[in-house]
Batch of 2 targets.
Target 1
Amino acid sequence: MSTLYSKNLQSVANTGKINHSFMKIVRFSIDDKVKHGILKGKTIQAIEDKPYRYIKPVDQHYKLSDVTLLPPSAPSKIVALGLNYHSHAEELQAPLPDAPLIFLKPSTAVIGPEDNIVYPPSSGRVDYEGELAVVIKKPSWRVSIEDAPDYVLGYTCFNDVTARDLQYADKQWTRAKSFDTFAAIGPCIETELDPGNVDLETYLNGELKQKGNTSDLIFSIPKLINFTSHVMTLLPGDIITTGTPSGIGPMYPGDKVEIKIKLIGTLRNYVVKNDR
Ligand code: MG
C-alpha cells in the first residue's frame, strides 16, 4: 500500500474527511440545485460543499441517469497554451517556444458534457483541440515547480474550440478562442493521475482524429503552474489547459466531437448551427 493511500485511510479514520486522492469528482444539477459529488460507477455520492478545501461525502446518493452533469468546475478564468506538444509544433512547422505561450478563455465560454458547441455566424472554420486540463485547488501565487502538485485538485478533458479562420485573421487570439460554448470541460475531475503520461484521443463522429500523450508536452504541468502563477493568481476551480497534440481539424454543424482520456472518461459535445 502506498504511503499516500495509507495517509488517506488515516485521514478518514481521524476526521471523517478524506483528502483529494483516488476519486472522480463531478458537479451536477438535480431539482434545480447544483451539487458536487464523487462518481462511483453509475451512482454519485454527494459531498459537503465544494471540493476545494476538503472532501466530505454525505449520505445523499443519486443515479447518474437522474442528474445533469455540469462542467466539473466553474472557473474564474481559463489559461490555455498556444503551442505545447512537440507533435503539434512539427505539424505546423513552428519553432519550439522558449517560454510557455499563454492566452485566456473567458468563463462565459464554458460548457459541460453533452452540451452544444454553437457555430458562430462570423466563422467558416471552427476546429476541435483535444486537451488535458488541470483544475486548481487553492489560491496559487508564485508557486515553485516542486510545490506545484499541491495546488492541483485534479485533471479533466478539455476541448479548446477555435475559430481557425478568425485566429489567422487577427493578431490577437481573443476573438477566435472566446465565443460562447468554445470551452468544453468534463465529464469529471480525476484526482489520481500521473499527468506526465496521459493518453489523449479526439474523435469526430466516431473517427479518431488526434492521438497524443502528455509525455510529448514541451512544458510540463508543474512548469505551467509555476509560470502562470508568476503572472496571475490562480483561484480554486481555475483551469490551465495544456495544449493540443497534432491532428487538429474542422467541425461542422451536425458533428459529434469526443475527447477521451481513459482514466478520466469521455467529454462529448455536439456542433450546432447558430440559429439567432
Ligand atoms: Mg489549444
Target 2
Amino acid sequence: MIYLDHAAATPVDKKVFAAMAPYFTEEFYNPSAAYLPAKKISADYEAAKGVIAHTIGAKAHDLIVTAGATEANNLAFTAAHGEILYLTTEHDSVRRVAEAKGGKAIKVLPSGLIDLEDLRRQITDKTELISVSLVNNELGVIQPLAEVAGIIREIKLDRMRRGVKQQLLLHSDASQALNLLDVSVARLGVDLMTLNAAKIYGPKGIGALYVAHGVRLEPLTLGGGQENGLRSGTENVPGVIGFAEAVRLAKEHLNGNRKKYAKWKKIFLSELSDYELIDKKHALDNFVVVSFDGIDAERLVFLLEAEEVYVATGAACAASKGVRSHVLKAIGLSERQIAGSLRITFGETNDEIQVREAARIINKAVREERARING
Ligand code: PLP
C-alpha cells in the first residue's frame, strides 16, 4: 500500500499515541473537578496548551481549544460583524462561513498567491476581518501573510488618522502549516490563527484558535464556561496532550522533513511521464499537483486504488461530493486541466522506494487509460 494523501489525513504518530494513552484510562478525571488527581490533569492540560502555544510564539491563555479546525475557523468569524474578505481558495470551513456572513472573495494570481492589488481594492472603511490561509490545502501554496499584515497595518494607520474607528483583523487558517513551516504569530502579524492536530500526526477532532489579546469573540457553545467561556464542554484532555506531542515532533523534524520531501518531489517528478506540473514554486515540498491531459483523474484515482496507491483529486470533502475544485478554477486552469489533476501529498508513511514505485504505477495507469481512450 502506498498512501499519498497526507494533506487529507495523517496517522497518529506512535509517540503521540503513547503520550495520549494514560489520559484515556488512569488519568481520566475531569479537569474542572476539585480533588487533587483532577487538579493534576488540569495542570497537564494547561501545560500541553502551553507547548502548542509556544511553537507559534504565544501563551496557553491565547489558545481556545476546539474540536478541529472547522470549529476554530467558525469561532474566528464570530469576531466580525462588519465586512469580511476571504481568499477565494480557502478551505470550505472558511469559505462557507465567510459566504454566510456576506464576505467577499479576494482573487488569487495564477501562481496561487493572493492578488495583493485586489486585496487593496476591496478593503473599505467597513472591512473588519480578512481571512487568508497560511498554506492552501490543495496546492500547498504558502501565502505571503506578513505582506498582507503590512497592508493591514497601513490601512489601520490611515483609518486612525481619519478617525475611522472600525477594527481590522487578520485571520489565518494554518491547518496545513505546522509540519513544514516555523510559524510565529508575531512575525506573521495575525490576530487569529487556526491550528489542526489532524494534519500533523496528531488525533482528529482537535484544533485550536489563537486569539490575540483584545480580540473579542462570541461563544461557539454555551455551558460550563471552559476555554474562556468561548467553547464550553469538558476538555478533550487526551486530544490536547496528543496535539502537544505532535507539535513538538513536527518542530523537531521540520528541517529534516523539508529536505526529505524536496528530494522526493524531485525524484517523483523525474520518474513521472507525460504530465503537466500544476503546483507552484511557493508550495510546501510535500505537495505535488500534476495534470494528465485527456485523463479523467477521478477514474485514475479509482484505477490507482486497485493497485493500492491512494491519491486525491483535490480536497477530500469536495472529492466525496463529486465537486470540481474551486481552487484549481481560481488559478485559471481549464476544465480539461482540472479534470486531469491529481494531488499527491507525501508524508511519514512513505519512503524513497515508495515514491519511485508510485511514479511507476501512475505512469502505467495513465498509459493504459490513454490506450483505452484512444481505442
Ligand atoms: N482548513 C484546512 C486548510 C484543512 O486542510 C482542513 C482539513 O480538512 C480543515 C480546515 C478542516 O479541518 P477539520 O476537518 O479537522 O475540522
